[in-house]
C-alpha cells in the first residue's frame, strides 16, 4: 500500500512539474526564446505590418544563424490584428497568456499599439513597437510606461521637423492642416506641427478632418482650397494620402502637401499616380539613397532575402529586432523584467537607420530624413541629426 501511495505521489509531482513548465510568460522551451509578433497582416494598413514582420524575421534569422542567444534559438510567434484596435488587444492577450512569449513586437500603428498597452503593462511583459510614433505609447500622464518601448522616433519630432521645413526651406507663411480624426497618430502630428509653425511666425488658416477608409474627400478639400494656404500638412497613412493628393490635384490644388512617415510606402504612388505627388514632402526614418555602410549592408541582406528593396517599415522592423536581440544578449535571461531593464539601458546601438540611444521616456534618439517625391520616386532632401 505504501509503495502504491509513493508511486501516486511521484506521478502527481511529475505532472505538476510538467504543468509548471507550461506556466507564466518567462517559461520557455530549453532551446528557444519565444517572442510575440502582433501585426497588421490583413486590413487597411497590412502593407505596414507585412514589411515590419519581414524586417523582424530577417534580424531573427541572422541572429539564429550566428548561434542565437546563449545557444537558444529565437522563435517568433505571430498574431494578425487585422489592422483593428480591438483585434490588437485580443492578439496580445493570446500571445502573453496562451503562447507565453517574453516580449511582444508590434503593432505597427499608434492606435493599435495604444490598445495593447494595458495588457502589456498589467502582465509586465515588454512591448516594442517598430513604427508606432504617438507620444502616448511610452508616456502616460507624464509618467514613462515601464514596459513600453519603440525603435522609431515620436510624433512631436516629426511635426517639429516638418513645421521647420515648411517655414525655413519652403518659406511658407500660411498652412492648412488636414487630419484623420480617427487616428491618434494624425492628431498628435497635427498638434506639434501647429505649435512649431506658429512659433516660427506662420499662420494656421484652418483645420479640416476626414475618417480612415473615406473615399471622397472633395467636400473638405474645397474648404481648404478656399483658404489658399502656402502648404497643406496632411499627417495620415498611405491609402488616404494617395486618394487625397490625387483628388486635390484634380481640383487644381497645386500647393505643396507635407506629411510624415505614414506616407512612406510604395503603394502611395500606385494610388495617387506619380505626377500628383510632385511637390510633396515628408519626413521618415530611412532613405534607400543613404550611402551609410550600415544602410547598404541591410539593403543588400534584405534584397537577397526577399528579392525587393526594403521600405521604411521593413527597416524599422529590422531595427526593432536588433534592439530586442541586443537586449536579450545583455539581459542573459528570459525574465521579462530583466529584458525590460536591458532595453532601457540601450546606448549607442548601431541599427540599419543609424545609431540609437534610448532616452528616459523609452524613445530612441536617432536621425530623421526629409524626402521629396519626384515623378513617383523618393528623392533625399535633408538629414537632421539627433539632439543629444
Automatic annotation (TrEMBL):
Domain of life: Bacteria
Pfam families found in the cross-reference section: Peripla_BP_6 (PF13458)
Keyword terms of this UniProt record: Amino-acid transport, Signal, Transport
Transmembrane regions listed in the UniProt entry: none
Signal peptide span: 1-20
Location of the Leucine-binding protein domain: 32-376
Coiled coil: none
InterPro entries, per the entry: BCAA_transport, Leu-bd, Leu_Ile_Val-bd, Peripla_BP_I
Similarity remark: Belongs to the leucine-binding protein family.
PANTHER family per the UniProt record, alphabetical: LEUCINE-SPECIFIC-BINDING PROTEIN (PTHR30483), PERIPLASMIC BINDING PROTEIN OF ABC TRANSPORTER FOR NATURAL AMINO ACIDS (PTHR30483:SF6)
Protein name: Leucine-, isoleucine-, valine-, threonine-, and alanine-binding protein
Naturally occurring in which organism (per UniProt): Sporomusa acidovorans (strain ATCC 49682 / DSM 3132 / Mol)
Lineage: Bacteria, Bacillati, Bacillota, Negativicutes, Selenomonadales
Amino acid at each position: 500500500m505504501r509503495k502504491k501511495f509513493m508511486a501516486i505521489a511521484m506521478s502527481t509531482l511529475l505532472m505538476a512539474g510538467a504543468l509548471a513548465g507550461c506556466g507564466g510568460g518567462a517559461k520557455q522551451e530549453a532551446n528557444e526564446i519565444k517572442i510575440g509578433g502582433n501585426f497588421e497582416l490583413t486590413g487597411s494598413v497590412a502593407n505596414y505590418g507585412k514589411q515590419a514582420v519581414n524586417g523582424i524575421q530577417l534580424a531573427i534569422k541572422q541572429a539564429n544563424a550566428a548561434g542565437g542567444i546563449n545557444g537558444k534559438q529565437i522563435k517568433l510567434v505571430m498574431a494578425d490584428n487585422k489592422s483593428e484596435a480591438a483585434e490588437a488587444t485580443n492578439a496580445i492577450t493570446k500571445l502573453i497568456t496562451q503562447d507565453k512569449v517574453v516580449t511582444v513586437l508590434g503593432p505597427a500603428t499608434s492606435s493599435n499599439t495604444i490598445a495593447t498597452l494595458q495588457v502589456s503593462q498589467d502582465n509586465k511583459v515588454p512591448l516594442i513597437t517598430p513604427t508606432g510614433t504617438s507620444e502616448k505609447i511610452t508616456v502616460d500622464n507624464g509618467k514613462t510606461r515601464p514596459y513600453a518601448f519603440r525603435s522609431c522616433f515620436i510624433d512631436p519630432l516629426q511635426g517639429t521637423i516638418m513645421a521647420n521645413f515648411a517655414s525655413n526651406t519652403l518659406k511658407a507663411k500660411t498652412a492648412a492642416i488636414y487630419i484623420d480624426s480617427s487616428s491618434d497618430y494624425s492628431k498628435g502630428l497635427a498638434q506639434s506641427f501647429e505649435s512649431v509653425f506658429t512659433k516660427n511666425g506662420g499662420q494656421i488658416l484652418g483645420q479640416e478632418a476626414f475618417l480612415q477608409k473615406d473615399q471622397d474627400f472633395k467636400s473638405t478639400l474645397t474648404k481648404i482650397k478656399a483658404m489658399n494656404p502656402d502648404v497643406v500638412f496632411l499627417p495620415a497613412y498611405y491609402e488616404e494620402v494617395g486618394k487625397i493628393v490625387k483628388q486635390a490635384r484634380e481640383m487644381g490644388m497645386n500647393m505643396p502637401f507635407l506629411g510624415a512617415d505614414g506616407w512612406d510606402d510604395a503603394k502611395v504612388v500606385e494610388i495617387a499616380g506619380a505626377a500628383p505627388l510632385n511637390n510633396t514632402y515628408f519626413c521618415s526614418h530611412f532613405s534607400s539613397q543613404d550611402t551609410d555602410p550600415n544602410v547598404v549592408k541591410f539593403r543588400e541582406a534584405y534584397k537577397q532575402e526577399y528579392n525587393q528593396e526594403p521600405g521604411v517599415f521593413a527597416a524599422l522592423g529590422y531595427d526593432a529586432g536588433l534592439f530586442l536581440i541586443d537586449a536579450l544578449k545583455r539581459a542573459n535571461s528570459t525574465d521579462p523584467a530583466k529584458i525590460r531593464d536591458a532595453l532601457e539601458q540601450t546606448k549607442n546601438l548601431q541599427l540599419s537607420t543609424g545609431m540609437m540611444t534610448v532616452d528616459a521616456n523609452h524613445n530612441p534618439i536617432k536621425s530623421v530624413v526629409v524626402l521629396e517625391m519626384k515623378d513617383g520616386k523618393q528623392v533625399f532632401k535633408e538629414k537632421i541629426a539627433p539632439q543629444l
